[in-house]
Task: structure prediction
Amino acid sequence: MRSPMNHAMEKKLILVGAGPGDPELITLRGIRAIREAHVILYDALANAQLLDYAQPDALKIFVGKRRKKAAYSQQEIHRLILHYTAHFGTVVRLKGGDPFVFGRGYEEMDFARSQGIPVEIVPGISSAIALPALQKIPLTLRGMAESFWVATATVADGSLSADLMLAARSTATVIILMGLHKIPEITSLYRLLGKGNLPVGVIENGSLPGERLITGTMDTIADQIAISAIQPPALIIAGPVVTLHASWNEVREPQIQTA
Ligand code: SAH
Result:
């Protein structure tokens, strides 16, 4: 292990987007940062194979949710950032997707700066953009979808996001992260708006081995999710663009596709 003192002068935090899951979907700059790191604090959604790029003596610390234990709190992660930058130098914070898309990246940057720790950001390919694309579903298309929203289902107090209620009223493609546990609320929202027929897809383990996609409508998708036992991580995409997926032309029965 490196001597803590050797690196005390080079303290730095690099927030790195690991991409949506497939380890090939990280940037070259992200790989370079992992190679330079003395310590890597990585989340559950960051592919652990990326740690193979690290120096053999780099510390690799998992800070995601562990079986039957709660995830590290944001405060605990801040404490780790403070400790490891002070004693080891360059700390990479490896996060799924992009660090600034529902990633708490700004909070960690803000904390580090408040402690006088220089911060670099390495953007990542967000699951919101990449997973529909890998399934060949465009987010925008002339004449079909003029824009897209990326929303979380739940806000801090546990209620359904008010933005999602606005998004559901629009004709935009709506991509919902962290939404699986809110599917009853989401589908009843759309149905109340008379959009029970709106096409919707759910992508489980996108870009990873065992990826699954189901497509249906707001009327059917909750049952399909239950029948297929879809688990997190899963992304929901709602809008007419879902009809462009290969599975849509087949009989509109509940169906599963395995990638
Ligand atoms: N910063 C991340 C998002 C973090 S929020 C990004 O830019 O991608 C976590 C949510 O992202 C999950 O609940 C899920 O909705 C979605 N997600 C991330 N990776 C995923 C994957 N491989 N498959 C399906 N959904 C994923």
